[in-house]
């Protein structure tokens, strides 16, 4: 990561210390690239071209920085998944497509961040507990989404777990799937997860949001 530019008008002897976001962004990048052991004050300071003491203007200690990383993960990955599950949809198929946006848009759900936090949990009981809570929250909101469209409790629970555990499997296996292949599989995934067929207009609207055009026949219901 290149050294951040000092704000204009800030004299050299003022000693720019960065900001909360500068330090947190560096920690976030280090976690995703090299794991939790790379998230340490001295290496981050060296990477940023800042003094070690600058860190303590914004964080009491490394533990507070790690807590901020977990908060970012909760807000981004769990928060956005909850939001997508609760978004308006005309059908369960369209609701599933709302969820799929998380898997295709890293601004909504950062799969590398998810993988890094789950790896971190192997070294920390506290983080493992956070993961367990997040898993429960996410499965519950997916279950609620199915219940909203008339599925009974057992069916909603099993379908929610099928969707969620499939995606966590993708992440845990660090699966590298070509995006075009993933788009082409979407109609079949929706059919498996919901027991229903997509309407062509639902899929076209979804593809259009990502600038993707599909010409291969899929599993569709009539308009």
Structure write-up:
With 223 residues, this protein is mainly alpha-helical. It has 2 domains: 18-59, Arc Repressor Mutant, subunit A (Orthogonal Bundle), CATH 1.10.10; 70-221. It is 65% helix and 2% strand. The chain has 10 helices and 2 strands. The chain has helices at residues 20-34, 41-48, 52-55, 62-86, 92-104, 111-121, 125-148, 153-172, 179-194, 200-209, and strands at residues 198-199, 220-221. Strands 1-2 form a two-stranded parallel ribbon. Helix 10 links the parallel strand 1 and strand 2. Helix 7 crosses helix 8. The chain is elongated. The model is unreliable at 1-14 and 216-223 (pLDDT under 50).
Outline the low-pLDDT stretches: 1-14, 216-223
Helix content class:
55-70%
Which radius of gyration do the C-alpha atoms yield?
21 Å
- Portion of residues in beta strands equals under 5%
The gross shape turns out to be: elongated
Secondary structure category: mainly alpha
Q: Could you state the order of secondary-structure elements as H and E?
A: HHHHHHHHHEHE
Number of individual domains: 2
Mean pLDDT: 89
